[in-house]
Specification:
Blueprint: H1 2-9, H2 12-22, H3 24-43, E1 50-57, E2 64-72, H4 78-101, H5 103-128
Antiparallel strand pairs: 1-2
Helix pairs in contact: 1-5, 2-5, 3-4
Length: about 130
């Protein structure tokens, strides 16, 4: 009876928010989506920087004759980064829609059903004076 009275005081949205915050499956899906988003962003970055140093020695010169410092970094054609960013954004939207239409939607439907049951029970108790 205490559960019904407490649940009746909350809105469905409050209950859904609480379920989303406490449901391990939903938390895991959100973290998985965050991880895949970060992975996609990481794949759209510049290649690692490479630094090489080469000293050259010559028999006619005492010590080092000359040296060479080579710094390289590969990169793709600039428009490719924009295309990847757009593709990553779209993939993120797909993941969000999968989340909203999958377990989160099922959980919301279950909460709404439970809320309906609670309200029905409260009406019945009021009607029959229990």
């Amino acid at each position: 009876m205490l559960i019904a009275a407490t649940a009746g005081a909350q809105t469905v949205e409050d209950v859904l928010r609480s379920v989303e915050m406490n449901n391990l499956e939903l938390k895991a899906l959100l973290k998985g989506n965050e991880a895949s988003s970060l992975e996609l962003k990481q794949q759209n970055s510049l290649d690692d920087l490479s630094v090489e140093y080469s000293p050259f020695f010559n028999a006619n010169v005492s010590g080092m004759a000359s040296s060479e410092l080579v710094v390289t970094q590969g990169f793709d054609f600039p428009t490719l980064y924009g295309a990847r960013r757009k593709a990553n954004r779209l993939q993120g939207e797909v993941k969000e829609m999968e989340y909203l239409t999958g377990p989160a939607r099922r959980t919301a439907q279950e909460c709404r059903r439970a809320d309906g049951h609670v309200h029905r029970e409260i009406r019945q108790r009021r009607r029959y004076g229990a």
